[in-house]
Amino acid sequence: MSFFGSMDTSASGMTAQRLRLDIISQNIANANTTRTAEGGAYKRKGVIFESVNQNNSFSSILGEYTNGNYKGVRVAEIITDESPCPLVYNPTHPDANAEGYVEMPNVNTVDEMVNMISASRSYEANVTAFNAMKAVATKALEIGKG
């Protein structure tokens, strides 16, 4: 793998995890949103990652990795969780139905916080790998100077 290929891989991971953190933040911010432009309660969103490589056979990925052509990960799609939204009895709420139930978002803030910690740690791991490669480059330049 080339030197810059390592940095590209880490950078793609940081970009993907940053978008994941943005989506998680959006979910938490809308945890109590009962009315959206699309109608109904807010639906939780999630991120699907995929390898940048189009060919997924082990030998082709290994070949691309050793030749320096491996580019990391990207966000394939942002999905909407279509699981049912919980109904809460609150007849005084402006979005209550005829029976007095309000459709609440299908966002669990505890799960979102766990996902946020996971994305944050993954981002930090990519930063650490990027900084390690930067340190290797700096040392290589110092050796070349002397």
Question: Can you put this structure into words, describing what you see?
Answer:
The protein is α+β, with helices and mostly antiparallel strands and 146 residues long. 51% of the residues lie in helices and 14% in strands. The chain is built from three helices and four strands; from the N terminus they run H-E-H-E-E-E-H. The protein has helices at residues 3-29, 58-67, 109-145; strands spanning 45-51, 73-80, 87-89, 101-103. The strands form two sheets. It has a two-stranded antiparallel ribbon with strand order 1-2. Helix 1 (3-29) runs antiparallel to helix 3. The longest helix has 37 residues, at 109-145. It starts with a helix and ends with a helix.
Strands, helices and their partners?
Layout lengths: L2 H27 L15 E7 L6 H10 L5 E8 L6 E3 L11 E3 L5 H37 L1
Helix pairs in contact: 1-3
Structure described in brief:
The chain has three helices and four strands; from the N terminus they run αβαβββα.
What Rg do the Cα atoms give? 22 Å
Q: Count up the helices.
A: 3
Q: For the residues shown, what is the average pLDDT? A: 88
Strand order of the largest sheet: 1-2
Topology as H/E string?
A: HEHEEEH
Distance between the termini: 26 Å
Helix/strand class: alpha+beta
Q: Tell me the β content.
A: 5-15%
Approximate helicity band: 40-55%
The coarse silhouette is: elongated
Low-confidence residue ranges:
none
Instruction: Work out the number of β strands.
Output: 4
Instruction: Please give the largest β-sheet.
Output: 2 strands, antiparallel
